[in-house]
Structure formats: C-alpha cells, structure tokens
Design goal:
By secondary structure, this protein is α+β, with helices and mostly antiparallel strands. The protein has helices at about 25-40, 75-90, 135-145, 150-160, 160-170, 185-190, 195-210, 215-225, 280-300, 300-305, and strands at about 15, 45-55, 60-65, 70, 95-100, 105, 110-115, 130-135, 195, 245-250, 255-260, 270-275. It has 10 helices and 12 strands. It is globular and about 60 Å long. The chain starts with 14 loop residues before the first strand and ends with a helix.
Length: about 300
Amino acid sequence: MRPTLRSLAAASLLVTGVTARSAAQQSSFATLVARVTDRIRAVPGAEAAVSYRDLATGDSLDIGADVDFHAASTMKIPVMLEVLRAAEAGRLQLDQGILLVNQFHSIVDGSPYSLDAGEDSDSSMYARVGQRVPVRELLERMIVRSSNLATNALIALVGADRANATAHALGASRIRVLRGVEDGKAYAAGMNNTTTSADLAILLLRIERNEALSAESARLMREILLRQEFNDEIPAGVPKGTPVAHKTGSITATLHDAAIIYPSGRPPYVLVVLTRKIPSDTTARALIADISRLVWTHATTPAVVGAR
C-alpha cells in the first residue's frame, strides 16, 4: 500500500533523500528541513510535498516526494516534452497549423465534451476556434497562459499515452498522464492525471541537463517556461529579476509549482512544491512562496555553495 502524507506525518512529513557533503551543509540542511516542515505544519490540514535538487552541489531534499497528487496543470510539462520529441522525430512540425476545435472525447466512453472559456486562464484562444493554429503557438499558450484549450489540442495531436510513456522513459515512473483537461466523466470516475514532486523534479533536471531533448529543443522548452505569466508562487520567494523556468497548476484546494531557478553566478537548482487541502489560494501561494524563500536562502549561502 502506498504511503500517504497523513499516515506519515509523524515521520517528519516523510523527509527523505537528504544529502550533504560538509559540516556546514549538514547544519544548513538541518535548518532548512526544520523550517520547511514547520512552515507546512503552520497551515492547518495542509498536505505538501517538496523536492529540491541543486546542480551546484549535487545535494537534494525530499519531503513527501513519493506521494501522489492530482497533477493539475503540471501535467503540461510531459505533454510539452512529448510534442517536442515528436517534432525531433519528424512526426510533426512546430510551425505546422492544426485546426483548433473545442470538442474532445472522454476517456471513459468516448462521449464528446467541450471546454468553457470562462473556466480557462487563457480565454483568448477560443477566438481561434475554427482556424489553423501553429503547434508552436499552442505550446506557448499551454505554458505561458496555461491554456486548457491549447493543451487538449496538443494531447489530441500526440496522445496522452505517448506523453505518459515519455515521462516514464525519462525516469518519472509514478507520473500518470491519462487525459486532457475538464474530462468530467473521467474526473468523476477517479481517472485523473497525477504526479509526485520527485517525478516533476526528475523531468526538470533532465530538461536542464539536455538529457530529455536535443540541446535546441531543451533550450526552446526552457525559454517558454521562463515566459510563464503566473509568478505568485516559487518566483515570489526569490529576489526580483531572478530567472525562473516553471509551470504552475491549480484545481480546487490544490496548488503546485515546479521550477528551475537560476541564481546569478552559479548553476541552477530545481524546486517542486505540491500542496492540497488548502481552501484558500492566498494561503497556498504564501506557503509555496515561503518554502521557495527558505530554499533560496539555503541554496545561496556561500558556505553551502562553496562546499563542493
């Protein structure tokens, strides 16, 4: 049986994967773990998972990192990976236009459903229905504005099963990409896209290291992630102007952010924070931003960075 955050709450919120190479790093990590876990526990009823990977030191930290969460829009990361891999393989062209429609089919029984522009963070895409839209533009809108319509169009193009298989092949073995967005029958049946913080961290690490895609495609993916327009979570916890390539995700009482952070003068680090059972988006955003701030303070401490 898979563990849950609730059943493992007594075990320091399932703190695992801690590595540190010097006394200074060990002390800093102990402080980081204590502060992050205390911050999570300060929100009544909250459940959270955190994965931190530092490319400067090779250090890592996991809290609840193997617990499954509803993926929300973080599933757009493996979808984007699969679209770019399909382009590399010649199965599609990024500049080819595809007919944008607003009718999709439930994975439960094949019945049709449509998306509501009023429920989409990028309602402007609905004005393009009936037109041919370049794949490149759909990728941009899927990430930068988290367009659900663009997401479903791309999933229809490459297949959720392929996106899922790509993520697994890259080492993200627990992530599950089953369907497009707003498939109400699938949601009611519990057939949801899920992820863990560790799996998202794996994908972001491999993107940053050019291990998931060619160098050119990986650069394009990072550039699009850097243009994300929703920046109230992880980016809010780092100094203004710090580049952050990331993807947020939210549904009712659930808020996530998965990011590559680029401090000046040193290699980047990856941070993923998943939260649920927090009814207030304001409270959840503050929690993620505070965890990001704590990790930034740890990651940019000279004693930690210098102890390689």
